[in-house]
Specification:
single chain, 118 residues, mainly alpha, 3 helices, 0% strand, elongated, membrane, transmembrane helix, Transmembrane protein, transmembrane
Length: 118
């Protein structure tokens, strides 16, 4: 089944679309081997196989508690990091805008103190 799934690289939306396409292909292959349409249990088994295989492409073994916990910790770290960078970016933009505003205010003050508005 691994050869049916593409390597996980590039744009996440493209990877997700490729995984969905591979899942559909696997479902069709599995359904084609059956004499009758698959029942709900068979469809769930196919989906479970595909999801497990897809997460293995990202280095996560869903059957291992340690691997899943490590994945959750990684996601939590990424979330914290993203929030920190969002705050840092906002602080930088605020500092730049404040500097521009103070510079303009200083220029106006200097202009007025020199008697420019007579």
């Amino acid at each position: 089944m691994t050869e049916a799934l593409p390597a996980a690289a590039g744009d996440p939306e493209v990877v997700l679309a490729a995984i969905a396409k591979a899942a559909a292909r696997l479902a069709v292959q599995d359904t084609g081997r059956r004499a009758e349409p698959p029942d709900e249990a068979a469809v769930e088994e196919i989906c479970e196989r595909v999801v497990n295989e897809a997460f293995k492409q990202f280095g996560v073994d869903l059957t291992s508690v340690a691997s899943v916990e490590d994945f959750r910790e990684t996601l939590a770290h990424l979330r914290r990091s993203r929030k920190w960078w969002d705050k840092a970016g906002a602080a930088v933009v605020t500092a730049i805008m404040s500097s521009i505003g103070l510079g303009l205010l200083a220029a106006v003050g200097k202009y007025l103190s020199l008697g420019g508005a007579k």
